[in-house]
Design a protein that fits this description.
With 333 residues, the chain is of the alpha+beta class. Helices cover 21% and strands 24% of the residues. The chain folds into 2 domains: 5-43 and 75-123 and 254-315, no CATH class; 131-252 and 316-326, capsid protein of prophage fold (2-Layer Sandwich), CATH 3.30.1930. It has helices spanning 10-24, 101-129, 153-165, 182-189, 192-197; strands spanning 35-36, 38-39, 45-49, 75-79, 83-91, 131-134, 176-180, 199-200, 211-215, 218-222, 228-229, 240-246, 251-254, 284-288, 302-310, 312-315, 321-326.
Length: 333
């Protein structure tokens, strides 16, 4: 006999949501350092970005209060929510026990899809609207050729210098972020200068986050979902890859932003309330019990499990996020 999931407690539903998110978050790399959009009183979501103040080189006059410094005019960016989702069905032959293994496995599979979907949406936005540059001093994708233009330590130094020159701020007060494809990571490991400068990840850190270590003032994350353009380099036979360099407040997200670990799901709601089992959540899990479809399921044979999320990414400052297109040792494979 199938369980009527409409009677499941919030705790059980939250357990499924947590399992989904636990599998989603490791796939969600590109959106972890975004600003969060907030809802305004007019029912829209918005992000305010303030400009910097110029240097003050006028000495104070004794006993005289200088004129007030004008507050920089904020740039207001309005974001429109976009919804995404997917579902899977199960039959009345499923053994639906609380918490049953079939729904748990389905929620895990759907979680991986949700995380990959969110990561891909953010990745595409960042690679499209970031400041574009090219490895080894090249000026166009079509001129990139392997191995001459494989990513190198010199390329990383150049991009790092560009961020510093634009007065970009590190995401955590200490480091910028560099996201690489595993193929590009393999190329850098073969660069002796890079290897000598690289500080390997601490053995106590979670490798599932994608973090592998630091160089200069950059934390390096490796993701198989980093952008790859097939056959766009020299001769239209060379694959080109993206290396993303990210600074603080360079982009914003309405949706999953700011959630880096599964445990964070339990304190990211308003006033520290948990997101699972609440009205506001990063990903909603939707369960329909067997027989809930009415005349569309006359023999009470089908139920479903689904995820739905809101996700809208937006680049705020292209000078503070850079996409360096390059080749690597796999570009001609």
């Amino acid at each position: 006999m199938a369980i009527d999931t409409s009677t499941l407690s919030d705790a059980v539903k939250a357990a499924y949501e947590m399992r989904l998110l636990t599998r989603a978050i490791p796939r969600y790399v590109h959106g972890r350092w975004a600003m969060k959009a907030r809802i305004s009183k007019r029912g829209t979501y918005e992000v305010r970005r303030y400009g910097s103040l110029s240097a003050n080189t006028t000495a104070l006059t004794e006993g005289t209060t200088p004129a007030e410094t004008a507050t920089p005019t904020p740039t207001l960016i309005t974001m429109t929510p976009a919804f995404y989702g997917s579902w899977m069905s199960f039959t009345d032959l499923a053994d639906l026990e609380i918490i049953d293994p079939i729904l748990s496995e389905m929620s895990s599979i759907l979680g991986e899809q949700a995380g990959l979907s969110a990561d891909t949406l953010v990745r595409n936005e960042l690679n499209t609207y970031a400041t574009i540059d090219y490895s080894a001093g090249q000026s166009a994708v079509a001129s990139l050729d392997a191995p001459a233009h494989n990513i190198s330590y010199a390329d990383i130094v150049e991009q790092y210098a560009a961020l510093e020159a634009s007065s970009a701020l590190p995401v955590d007060g200490e480091d910028f972020i560099l996201i690489l494809h595993p193929h590009s990571w393999a190329s850098l490991i073969l660069d002796p200068t890079f290897v000598n400068m690289f500080i390997q990840e601490s053995p106590n850190s979670a490798i599932r986050s994608g973090y592998v270590g630091r160089i200069l003032r950059m934390k390096i994350f490796v993701s198989s979902n980093a952008y790859e353009w097939a056959d766009v380099g020299v001769g239209s036979t060379t694959d080109v890859y993206s290396a993303l360099f990210i600074a603080k407040e360079s982009y914003a997200i309405l949706g999953l932003s700011g959630i880096e670990e599964p445990k964070d799901v339990d304190n990211q709601g308003d006033n520290g309330k948990p997101l699972t089992g609440q009205q506001i959540k990063p990903v909603e899990i939707i369960m329909k019990q067997v027989g809930s479809a009415g005349s569309s399921d006359p023999l009470n044979q089908r139920g479903s499990l689904a995820w739905k999320m809101t996700l809208t990414p937006e680049v705020l400052n292209a000078d503070w996020i850079r996409c360096m297109k390059h080749t690597n040792i796999f570009s001609d494979s």
